[in-house]
Amino acid sequence: MEAPASENPPLPTAPPLPPPRVWKFWGTTLWGLFVFGGMFLGQLAVVIYFMLKQDAPNIASVIQTIGGGLTIALSVITGLPGVLLALWIAIRPTRSSFADYLALRWTSWKNFAIGVAALALLVGVWDLVSRALGRDVSPGFMGEVLKSAQAEGALWLLVIAFCVAAPISEELFARGFLYRGWSESALRPAGAILLSSLVWTLLHLQYDWFFLSQVFSIGLLFGYLRYRFETTWLTIMLHGANNLAATLQTLWLAGQS
Hints:
By secondary structure, the chain is mainly α. It has helices spanning 25-53, 59-66, 69-91, 98-101, 109-132, 140-151, 155-183, 188-202, 209-229, 233-256. It has one domain (25-252).
């Protein structure tokens, strides 16, 4: 005899979803240009705004406005939402969450202490080299920007830009997005650390070769910490702490002169 048909046949199961995607070398590179464009447009909007406020702008006034502390502070801050929006657009097709793709996970206080110690040692060595070469330990560009911000009553805004907005934007871009994709390509983690550090250094072309070398070495340290502890929050905090220390140092040296 045939078994009676079940009155409630099992429902068909849905096929499993494909695993989240990670952009490899070219995908990360092209989307990285898109993210950089978001940062640039966010910053450019502030410059355009101040240009439109001038009745008859000329080259001298344009240069003064672009290099002013208030303009730089606002442009860095407005670049942050541009980066966040561009990253969200770039990550959405991967089916990964924003936090997972960019390794936005917390870390231990022990890891933070290791990062602080390593950063302090690296910056201390660069300060010793700078003094041995008879160079200023602080970039002249930074001193001029801080003086301008003080004159315009925007020093607090510049501190927020340098110590909060810039670290978040740059770390999510370099150690978050670029490292994630490039490390899973033929570059592997070592190549991703090197290339992302180079890109990050190119974001600081306002400095001379000596301070660019310092920035590159800090980028290598941050890249290693990103690889070692698998978190971008750690490098964001260290980046902010480094910028805060550099700002306070520049203000102190300016007060001594």
